[in-house]
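Reminder: ligand-aware prediction takes two inputs, not one.
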Amino acid sequence: MKQTKFLVGAATAAHQVEGNNKKSDYWAMEQLPGSNFSEPSLDAADHYHRYKEDLQLLADTGANAYRFSIEWARIEPQKGVYDETEIAHYREVLLTCHQLNLTPIVTLHHFTSPKWLITEGGWEAQTTIAYFRQYAQLIAERLGDLIPYVCTINEANMGKQIRKLIEGMQAAAQQAPEAATEEKTADLQIGLNELQANDERAIFNQGLADSFEIAPDKIQTFLAPRSEAGEAIIMACHQAAREAFKAIHPETQVGITFSLYDHQALPGAEALAEAGQQADFLDYLPYLEADDFLGVQNYTRKIHALPGQAVPEEPTRMTKMGYEFYPEALGNVLQAVAKQWHKPILVTENGVATDNDAERIEFMARAIEGVAQAKAAGVPVIGYCYWSLLDNFEWQLGYAQTFGLIAVDRKTQTRYPKESLAYLHQIVEKMQNS
Ligand code: BGC
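Here is what comes back for the chain with beta-D-glucopyranose:
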């Protein structure tokens, strides 16, 4: 089953596109009064029912890969109870991929978790390691024959990045309260809203306590600020899932994905950039030694400066997400990662939120140029998945962010392919010949 051709496709995540992920922690949080989600996910893009149409549109471009996630909360809605209908559903999705010559790249965990897992202590609890192993084993047993690539955990480093952001905000608030609001959640490559005001937070916390049946400060979803002990638990989950999958399907290529910045430094600030790369990626290397590939996810760069140091070129071109439009970041990340990582690298996410599709095509063209250059320089990059196939639910920011190659009218669920969808064909051509 091992692929040799360069993989080109698009990515999604279950909660962001399927709709009605009712047994998950995110569904519960979105519905609560005082929620910091701009809107709830509801039917999302109804990909759960329309995946055949969506995959056909993807395959029609000549793309050969589809990255998506299996939703743990659907497979195991109650602890130890597996839903056969949902297992059969994902089998159909996988079969459709194969029929359309789309190599499936399956993520086992993409941010959302079964609500029961959070009640049991979530991503700071040792017990989660065994639960995740069992879930991975079930997927391997029941669906693994159709899965050539597995990403165990999406952006395993995101909880650490969130913790660092919050610590930075708190430190800034102590030093200069009026400046504290200038710290932005847009400093992460994910859709987060600003922290809630205290009164809203109190209402939300009460709802959380009622809904999850534990104290709000014990609610450890995947995107909660992660402690060092929690970091070790996530790595143990990754290793357990990899072992479980490989024991049944040794030929399946197993890896993990990280949210990675192109860390750049102004003169004198090199150590800060190195510390960024260390925290985002290098800290995790000891846990990845038996992995088959690495999933790289990149959206922009981060320029490190010393305190008070002026940035010579303030970014002028921003994406809808509020961070710099800088597609060259991807090639730089690939080259940086390859200094310490010598196995295959798969770009599991890269994309831009914009209402201007010509701008999206420009982003893709410039990003893929960086991929081609990295490949020519010997970086073992084996594929590129654009984020995202569909306009979708960008977490706390809701549906306003438009990353998709296909627009969706959410009232009728009609699909409107953008020009950028067809552009995948040019990426296939370019990378097959590079
Ligand atoms: C995540 C996606 C998200 C995307 C765009 C990544 O952080 O894996 O779920 O939608 O970036 O922000």
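Residues 7-432 form a domain with the TIM Barrel fold (CATH 3.20.20.80). DSSP finds 14 helices and twelve strands in the chain. We will return to this case in the review session.
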